[in-house]
Design goal:
Layout: H1 6-19, H2 26-31, H3 42-46, H4 57-66, H5 79-86, H6 90-96, H7 108-114, H8 121-130, H9 148-156, H10 162-176, H11 186-201, H12 218-236, H13 242-262, H14 271-286, H15 290-306, H16 320-344, H17 369-385, H18 393-408, H19 413-416, H20 424-444, H21 461-483, H22 488-491, H23 493-508, H24 516-531, E1 535-536, E2 542-543, H25 553-567, H26 574-585, H27 609-617
Antiparallel strand pairs: 1-2
Helix pairs in contact: 7-8, 10-12, 12-13, 12-14, 13-14, 14-15, 14-16, 15-16, 16-17, 17-18, 17-20, 20-21, 20-23, 21-23, 21-24, 23-24, 23-25, 23-27, 24-25, 25-26
């Protein structure tokens, strides 16, 4: 046989060369690890970055011929590349990342993962469990659901019924959400809600013996807990009479908490679980249980930090659309913590340094209600964390006011002036923002309300005193206008707190206590709360209407104190006085009501108005004096 020709030799060599070409995606080739050639490959999925799994263009033509079902993307940085590369919805990406636990750059886990190679890749991946830095319980260990069927039966006992969803979600969507948008993606939630209602009508939840697999996962149960949380908030803002409203809201909240346990929330948190906890905490707060809401918020923040929501690096492994949702959710957590901290004068636990500020926020005009509220809450964190040692309080306050004014000047027109409001919703958001802004100004200006020796009065104190007076008056006016249009201010703890603290300061501050306009506002605020309380019918039985309103013990105390101060001036009727005294009777363990119907109090003129109001609003609810021993 004659030898092969040169052309034949060259052809065989080219074929062999092609066989040796790398079939790995770029990340696997770069790190010299095994790649299975799928899109995204299993290695990229395991390493939590499926969105960057891509192949060179020179390879994509040949691979597409053998695998026509696979579509490559030329650039992993483009939005299309992210969608095509993952070919997953955000929920599936969340499921893939359910075992992710955030660790800082200096942790052993992060260092080992960063330096991982073929030899120690598996060790780096499992180091969290090896070092005891990762949860291992796959089900909630503090309840008795031993089998999947037990858990399914427990879930069926708390599932929201169709009529409950149709009735109370509407109240949440229209009344609660616009003023406190905790849901990070309302459109996606509504789509999932439709899926749930369709499944309910098709009988997927009828059998307790047959487990519907798609609804029995941690993620699905977490979503159901979120749905129940929105129903609890919706029931609180509904038009049902107070006793039944309280019972319904409490029942929905209880069922939501039970679903959270079934979803193993403490050991396997998710975005839906974080949102459910936030809404439940806010509902507890609006029901007057602000201390419980404060404690629950601490747990919520820690779970969110476990997921890495507090930092951009912690969400880098997520697709872009999920990353956007995570950032919005952390901003909402900052919102909740900031407002509670300002009301309680307690240190915040959230941080904002992990997410870089978007520069345009300082330059954009026509800021929305939500954007302005986020800016106010960030300012609130700075106020609560300010180091005043060696710094001038007045100068700091002036700086804070300038920052707040800068944001206020760039609001949308309807948020700046009510004359620009063209819808009911715009009117309500305008008034809500006025209340929040006024409260923030009053907190900033409190150094000017403190009693200081004449020789220590700062030259710019007069400016702060003027702004303080204007903010207290405007908070009361905005509340009165708001409650005429909606139940929101009477059922939102933060707004009740704002108007009562503002009205009390107007009553006891020497700048305002003798002002006729201020006294008129105080009277009108008292009238609103008096008329919303339970009434006694002609036959002597207690009755209430749909506008009847709870008041927390601290707020009852503040209202009775205000009534007492005005009563001493002889401007309050006896009938209304008795009505408030009855309210105070429910909070008897915290304070005593005198025979005239108001609390016996010391002379407020002997104290700083700020110190005096703190003594009223921050009465301890816990008695630690009896904890010397067990059963003593």
């Amino acid at each position: 046989m004659s030898g092969p020709s040169q052309d034949e030799v060259d052809r065989v060599l080219r074929l062999k060369s092609r066989e040796r070409e790398s079939h790995a995606c770029y990340p696997c080739k770069k790190r010299k690890v095994k790649c299975d050639g799928t899109q995204p490959c299993k290695t990229c999925q395991r390493r939590k970055h499926p969105q960057i799994c891509t192949y060179k263009l020179s390879h994509s033509r040949r691979r597409s011929a053998s695998h026509p079902e696979i579509t490559r993307s030329a650039s992993p940085a483009s939005p299309a590349a992210v969608v095509n590369a993952s070919s997953d919805t955000p929920s599936r990406s969340e499921d893939r990342s359910k075992d992710y636990v955030y660790s800082g750059d200096n942790s052993v886990v992060s260092i080992l993962r960063l330096r991982a190679s073929d030899a120690n890749e598996s060790v780096a991946r499992e180091v969290g469990s090896v070092l005891g830095l990762q949860n291992t319980f796959n089900s909630y260990p503090f309840m008795d659901s031993k089998t999947p069927r037990d858990r399914w039966k427990a879930l069926l006992s708390v599932l929201p019924q169709r009529n409950e969803v149709l009735k109370f979600f509407h109240y949440y969507q229209v009344t609660a959400y616009p003023f406190n948008p905790i849901l990070a993606d309302m459109g996606r939630f509504e789509s999932d809600l439709c899926t749930y209602l369709n499944a309910h009508s098709e009988g997927e939840f009828k059998s307790s013996d047959k487990v519907a697999e798609r609804w029995a996962t941690d993620r699905s149960i977490g979503h159901i807990s979120l749905l129940l949380a929105t129903l609890a908030a919706g029931a609180h803002y509904s038009d049902i009479e107070y006793p039944q409203r309280l019972e319904l809201a409490t029942d929905f909240a209880r069922r939501s908490f039970h679903a959270l346990r079934l979803a193993n929330f403490l050991f396997r948190p998710s975005l839906d679980i974080i949102q459910a906890l936030l809404i439940l905490g806010n509902t507890l707060q609006n029901m007057g249980q602000s201390d419980a809401a404060w404690a629950l918020l601490g747990t919520t923040v820690r779970l969110a930090q476990t997921m890495g929501l507090h930092t951009q690096r912690g969400t880098a492994h997520l697709p872009e659309q999920v990353k956007t949702k995570a950032r919005a959710l952390w901003s909402t957590i900052v919102w909740q913590d900031s407002l509670l901290c300002l009301c309680y004068d307690r240190p915040p636990i959230v941080t904002v340094t992990g997410w870089p500020l978007e520069n345009p926020v300082f330059e954009l005009q026509d800021l929305s209600y939500e954007a302005v509220m986020h800016s106010i809450c960030r300012l609130g964190l700075d106020i609560m964390r300010a180091e005043t040692i060696g710094l001038d309080e007045v100068e700091q306050a002036i700086g804070y006011l300038q920052r707040l004014d800068s944001v206020s000047q760039r609001r949308q027109p309807y948020l700046q002036s009510r004359e620009n409001c063209i819808s009911l919703q715009q009117n309500l958001q305008h008034l809500a923002l006025r209340m929040h802004t006024s409260f923030c100004v009053s907190v900033i200006c409190r150094p000017a309300m403190k009693k200081s020796p004449p020789q220590l009065v700062h030259p710019q104190s007069e400016l702060l005193r003027s702004r303080a007076k204007g903010s207290l008056i405007d908070a009361s006016k905005a509340f009165l206008e708001f409650q005429a249009l909606s139940v929101v201010p009477l059922r939102s703890w933060s707004m009740v707190h704002t108007v009562l603290s503002s009205t009390l300061l107007l009553c006891i501050w020497e700048e305002t206590r003798n002002d006729p306009e201020c006294r008129s506002l105080q009277q009108r605020v008292i009238d609103v709360f008096s008329s919303s309380d339970s009434k006694v019918s002609e036959d002597g039985t207690s009755s209430s209407d749909s506008d009847s309103q709870w008041l927390s013990a601290r707020h009852i105390r503040a209202l009775v104190m205000l009534r007492g101060a005005l009563d001493r001036e002889g401007e309050i009727g006896n009938a209304e006085n008795e009505n408030l005294a009855a309210m105070g009777a429910n909070a008897a363990p915290l304070f005593s009501v005198g025979p005239e119907g108001y609390m016996d109090m010391v002379n407020p003129m002997d104290f700083s108005p700020v110190s005096y109001i703190d003594s009223i609003m921050n009465v301890p609810l816990f008695d630690f004096t009896q904890e010397s021993g067990f059963m003593e």
